[in-house]
Design brief:
The protein is α/β, with parallel strands linked by helices. The chain has 8 helices and 5 strands. The termini are close together. This is Cyclodipeptide synthase.
Length: 236
Amino acid sequence: MTPDGQIPRPRTSVGRGGHALLALGLFDHAEEDLLGYAGWAAGNFTAVQVVLVDLPAAHTYRAVGYKTHRALHKARSEGKRLQARARRALAVLGLPGSLVVPWAEVAARYRYQVLFDQVRHAYDSSLVFRAACLRATATMLADRVPGALCSRGQVQIAVHSLLAELPLALDGAGILGVPESTRCQPRPLELTELLAAAPPELCPRPGQLALTLRSAPAQRPNTVSGSQLTEISQSQ
């Protein structure tokens, strides 16, 4: 491991095998969709972890009018509901609930903290990157909260949600302590403009790929034997 928490890894390609990082936010989908996504991931990868992107949503709630304490309370309570739905979906597939990784655990990991510091420094020091982040946030806010005014003040609050999520998009594999990973997300961050405006240190790391989950399979997936999936240690 390097001083900034990176682990050496080869470049990879999407396909059967490897590690899937299923990122689920509070503004995604209901349990039946989660079941479809988890079943697809379990059928196409040898290891799956479900990361709950819940606490960053507090900034989005603040942006649309919640007081700080109420926004945090809502993010936590909705996160608990999302965790319960994710665990139920995994249980239907015969998979352990320990595959669910809460956001608090993600944010406590050294690699995440290194990347988050880099993201914040870039946002504070680069006018070009900051402008790209604000534009991406306006799009994200309109998508997540239909009817939101997306005023400049709202966007400047909600941008902290985007900044918190960005490290997971850049190097989810390194944060979770695996050599390579494919991030699978129903509503991923739009990174094209962000990365074009970002400093060199903010680029997806080798071994970190991404897939957009457009829609869940129509049929309930078959149960997956626990022996077919590798459970990842949570002690990274």
